[in-house]
Design brief:
globular, mainly alpha
Length: about 240
């Protein structure tokens, strides 16, 4: 079966999964709301990073993106739906690529819209504190917001294909990002900057003074996502459905 109808079928599946209905709107609402709150605090602190204050809601908002990526893949393992999917599309790599595209595209679009909205909202709150932001820095922050959320959703999708369980992915990845990453960061020092969340979020800062720059940080997150997807593809293609 050609790729396009497979992708169309996978997109249709997403639209019929009710648990997913609130995830992408949650990305928009959480990122925008928390960024506005952070901007309110940043407006009173002249030494704060205005770009990160405008987009810092990505930290809690990424949880919804993780849930979207995990649930989209884990739905295949409920009631052995994966058997029907692979019977319709015997070429497992093609099916998995279509599934990942159906995850990546909506998260990227929502992430870009969210980043733009959060930035404009936060700039209104920051007022003169945001005057130092250049157009290039703002464009990079918005683009980076969309790409980062897409990569973290794909990371979750790859882990779910590996574990064959959305619960296992969420119970591993969410505590890691919210708690363990920062604990490791305190203990490991500069090495922690290569963790997927910390590396990718460098793009949300106006300046970077560490080992990674904005785009190299996103590249590190992309490598983490690629490793998870490769492991998930290996599990899918080498084990029984």
């Amino acid at each position: 079966m050609p790729f396009t109808p497979v992708l169309r079928a996978e997109a249709l599946k997403i639209r019929t999964l009710r648990p997913l209905y609130g995830t992408l709107p949650a990305v928009f609402l959480v990122v925008t709301a928390f960024s506005a709150l952070a901007a309110g605090s940043g407006a009173a602190d002249p030494g704060s990073d205005p770009l990160f204050a405008s987009l810092s809601g990505v930290w809690p908002g990424q949880i919804a993106a993780i849930v979207f990526g995990a649930l989209t893949v884990s739905a295949e393992y409920h009631g052995n739906a994966i058997r029907l999917s692979l019977a319709a599309v015997p070429r497992r790599g093609r099916w998995f690529a279509a599934k990942l595209t159906a995850v990546a595209v909506p998260v990227l679009v929502v992430g870009l819209v969210t980043g733009l909205t959060a930035l404009f909202t936060a700039r209104a709150v920051l007022g003169g504190a945001a005057a130092g932001l250049s157009a290039g820095e703002q464009a990079r922050g918005v683009l980076g917001c969309g790409i980062y959320l897409m990569l973290i959703a794909l990371f979750a999708a790859g882990l779910t294909a590996l574990f064959r369980s959305g619960v296992a992915t969420l119970s591993t990845l969410i505590p890691f990002i919210l708690v363990v990453s920062f604990v490791i960061g305190d203990a490991a020092g500069s090495a922690a900057r290569f963790l997927p969340d910390q590396a990718g979020q460098v793009v949300l800062h106006q300046t970077s003074d560490g080992l990674l720059g904005p785009w190299s940080g996103l590249a590190v997150t992309a490598l983490w996502a690629a490793a998870a997807l490769a492991a998930g593809a290996w599990r899918l293609c080498t084990r029984d459905a």
